[in-house]
Amino acid sequence: MPRPAASAAATDPRCPSPVLPPPDGPTIAGLLSTAPAPAPRGATRLWPGEPLLWSWGPWHPGEVRTVQCAHARLAAVGQCLADEVTMRHDLRRAVQDGRWERLTRWPGAYLLIVVQDDGRLTAYADPAGQFPLYYGRHGQNTVLSTRARTAAALCGAGGRPDTAALAAHIVCPAVPELTEGRTAYDGIRRLGGGQALRVTPSGDRTHWIYEDLAPDPGTRFEDSAVQLRSALTRAVTLRTDTAPRITSDFSGGLDSTSLAFLTARTTSRPPLDAFVYHHPDAPAGDLANALAHAEQTPSVRLAVTRGSADSLPYSGLPGHGPADQPDPAAVIGARQRLRLDHIARGGPGIHLTGEGGDALLAAPPSYLGDIAATAGLRRLLSDGRALARIRQLSPADVILRARRLARTPLHQAMSELASHLDEPLDHPPRWADAVAWWPAPGPETAWLTTRARRHLAELAEERARATDPAAAPVTPGIRAVLCELRTSAAVQAQFTATARAFGIWPHAPFLDSEVVRACTRLPLAHRIDPFAAKPLLAAALTGLVPDPVLRRRTKGDYAAENYHGVRRSATQIRARLLRSPLAELGIIEPSRVIASVERAVAGLAAPFPALNRLLGADLWLTADDSGRERS
């Protein structure tokens, strides 16, 4: 299982000089000690003369940007699109007035790290959480890194997995509160979306939320559409102005296709190379739409990446490469590598994806609870009936679920979760099951050992007791949006790590901070219309994107590929499960998981998302530093 190499710092608290293996990807790390050590082998100082932080490369050009002024140094890690003059000016102003959060308002998305001359270090993760920071303790010292594995090495954690975090990741991904801030490494915490951390020279740590993405009740739909149009256009233009080569996904759906049309309008090097994936034996339904939309303009040159038996899900699992955290997308690694290889044939560059669009602009089922609580019975009846009709469900059942949700406080939902872990659903969660704070645990819950399930139930009970009933928590719908947003950010971060070996730098403009704020500022009830697909995006991009693109209501469905893939790789999956470290750690009962795999092989309903999370965790535990399977 993943284990950082031992270091001098990990074994002797008097010696802060770490001896670390070179990270398996570009990394920034630091051991915040009163007696800073020389940089580890292969690392350089992030700022010359500043001993706290080190950097390993190679980074993409512009992926790490640093500026400094009297009394402070700043690093923006990720996709900071501000010009250097602005960065220097705003840093000087922040030093003078202490308004550091001003520095989080630049275009793009990035992790911000500020070190002041008095030794204080302050970090801000981007609002979506695409660029987190990992941190922990080594003795009295704080360690931190942009990679969890490196933070664990500096802490001397020995790569010990956090079994509760892994179990929750597999069966309760929609309830991040269960293991809030914890990672797959025991003792390593994650600074996630909208969160900030300050470390003083004495080692004191302060953690807070600087960007809660709460809606503004006074925001009008029309104003948000104008803000979203401006933010998306700026996000694309700033990239096309600087990228030597830019490409885009082009699925035929709203998100990636809209971005491709925006990019084609602004690029100085038409036509734009755009890519759609299609598996002839298991079509997802995207190709026809993509071809039709691409025919509308000569400024888009569409390329079709065609799948084969070798690109099906679950093929070539050990070849996905080492993941810093368990990666559910590892099971589609062959498809990702096929797509990236196709894109990279034209040379390195920035590649745009539509990740984040669904999270910000689509309707989570739980928004009906918000409607029931705030918008009145007429709106609830209208939306509930429309959504039930689209999904061929009972309108009465959907509306009753919404009214029940509106009367269920968060602490009660946590208590009910503890009970549901002992009596899970007997089917994978359906749309109606998500008209709740979160869908109740599904049949994959039975994969866990009794001990692991009991541990999660105890965590849920603890969270229930710790939740103040008198507080005004976020609504179920807004909470679901934020959860989906964080998940999208993690998906994009993992895809970016996979793409690095191909010289491709994926960017997701929907995850840019300006775009996220423009969408979340509008109350959810005004953002959603069950009779239209993503009405805010359609209003924002009318005139910039062809109307047929904005009217598409369907999405590609990859379920057929999942079934083809699990049948083809069933023998390998069974063998992997029987020797999985997840069983050794007391997290799963392999025979129960194999029973679910057999159902999938037979074409019956199976919890594929949970299986993908489990296999991603297994790969994380079994891969060595190069991504190869340990013998």
TrEMBL record:
Domain Asparagine synthetase: 227-621
Domain of life per record: Bacteria
Pfam families xref list: Asn_synthase
Catalytic activity: L-aspartate + L-glutamine + ATP + H2O = L-asparagine + L-glutamate + AMP + diphosphate + H(+)
The keyword Acyltransferase appears for this protein: no
Regions of compositional bias (Pro residues) in chain numbering: 15-25
Signal peptide range: none
Region Disordered, annotated ranges: 1-27
Transmembrane regions listed in the UniProt entry: none
Keyword terms of this UniProt record: Amino-acid biosynthesis, Asparagine biosynthesis
Entry EC number(s): 6.3.5.4
SUPFAM superfamilies in UniProt: Adenine nucleotide alpha hydrolases-like (SSF52402), N-terminal nucleophile aminohydrolases (Ntn hydrolases) (SSF56235)
Pathway it works in: Amino-acid biosynthesis; L-asparagine biosynthesis; L-asparagine from L-aspartate (L-Gln route): step 1/1
PANTHER family: ASPARAGINE SYNTHETASE (PTHR43284:SF1), ASPARAGINE SYNTHETASE (GLUTAMINE-HYDROLYZING) (PTHR43284)
Name of this chain's protein: asparagine synthase (glutamine-hydrolyzing)
Species: Streptomyces anatolicus
